[in-house]
Structure formats: C-alpha cells, structure tokens
Amino acid sequence: MTRLLSQPNVLTEYHCDTLDDLYVAINSKNPVPGTIFDFLHIKKKKNGIDLRSIIQKPTPKPSDDKNPVTVAGGVTNLAITLGQCCTPIPGDDIVGYITRGKGITVHRRSCPNIAHETKRLIDVAWKDDLGVSTYPVDIEIYANDRTGLIADILQTIGSAGVSVSDLKAHLVSATMNDVVTLTLSVSSAKTLEDVSSALLGVKGVYSVNRVIH
User: Fold this and answer.
1) 157-187 per-position pLDDT tens digit
2) Is residue 24 located within the same domain as residue 97?
3) Average pLDDT value for the chain
4) What is the reported pLDDT for 58?
5) How far apart are CA 144 and CA 206, in angstroms?
6) Total structural domains in the chain?
7) pTM
8) Helices then strands (H, E): number in the chain?
9) Which residues contact 75 (CB under 8 A, 6 or more apart)?
10) What is the C-alpha to C-alpha distance for residues 12 and 135, in angstroms, rounded to an integer?
11) Domain at 180, CATH number
C-alpha cells in the first residue's frame, strides 16, 4: 500500500511533496481516504480483504514488534520514535507528530514543541503489553544545599528499583539551593510518580519536575 500511495501521480493529484505529507492530509480527512482508492481504481474488496481498512483502521503489528506504540488511522511502514524533548513514557497521554521525512515522533500531549502543529498530529496509543521495558526520562530536583544530599537522592532512587544513567548538579550561590538533573530509566509514569514522591521525602528537597528540552 505504501508503494501505491507514494506513486508520483498520487502525490501530484493531492498536492503533496512526500508520502508523509499525504499521511498528514489523510489524517485530516482531506482527501477522504476513500477518494484515493477511487483515484487508484482499487475496488473496495479484493481477495476478501477490505482495502479501505488499511488506512481507516490500525494494522496489527507482528507479535515480536518492539515498538511500544500503535498508530491510529492505519498509518504503517513509517519509523516511530519517542520524542527526546518531552521523553514520553507508558502511562503518559501521548500524540503522534508526522515529521517531514522522518516518520512519526511520539510526544506527550502537553509538549509545547508541538502546540502549533495541530495539522500534523495523529492519534497514537501505548500497547497493552509492554513487557519489562524501561524508558529514559529527565527530571530536575530543587533542594536546599547540604552535605550528603546527592547520596540520599541516589539511595532513594535505588531503593525504588530505578537506575540512573546521567546526573548533573550545580549550586545556585545566590540562594544556596542545589539543582540536580538526572536521567532515570523507568517502566511507566506510575513508577516515575512513585519515585518523585519518595524524592520529595528526602531532607531539603522541595521540588521534583520532569524536564522538557
């Protein structure tokens, strides 16, 4: 189906430069998916398969597909990546952004980087069974400066069964507050919520926030 849709005459007919642009148009129902099949002279059914469902309904992925997200609207054969700006994790409310030539990037719906790109957004959802995968997420901790603060933060995170892949800290001398930025590996938004709550119990810590780049 991707081969058919990417034919030059199809892209020209619907005033699209790339296949990604055509997916954006289909997602906004302009053109209506059925008109494309009419243009391609494809019958509604062939060999018992409803070809229109290829665009109008999600296509099941193979069971060994490691991608954690499914895409609505039947958009298939596109690369799907998790946005590095807002680092979405399972349990987050997410949306897909159809990039220009690089497939679909998944963002949190609250991500400010896609706030003005509504025409390029497409519904996506986390898969039901994600196994034991973990996902990187950046957090920022604000705390009153004291000896042993970093050690207590790391011990609290480790006690929750969460690993840390990066840590940066600096002192704001004007206020004598520490800002600690960490990259955690978590399995879900619930895990992150639990860790954040535990960190707020560390002496001197008064704020824990997710970072959006």
Assistant:
1) 999 999 999 999 999 999 999 999 999 999 9
2) yes
3) 81
4) 38
5) 8
6) 2
7) 0.68
8) 7, 12
9) 23, 26, 27, 55, 98, 104, 122
10) 40
11) 3.30.70.260
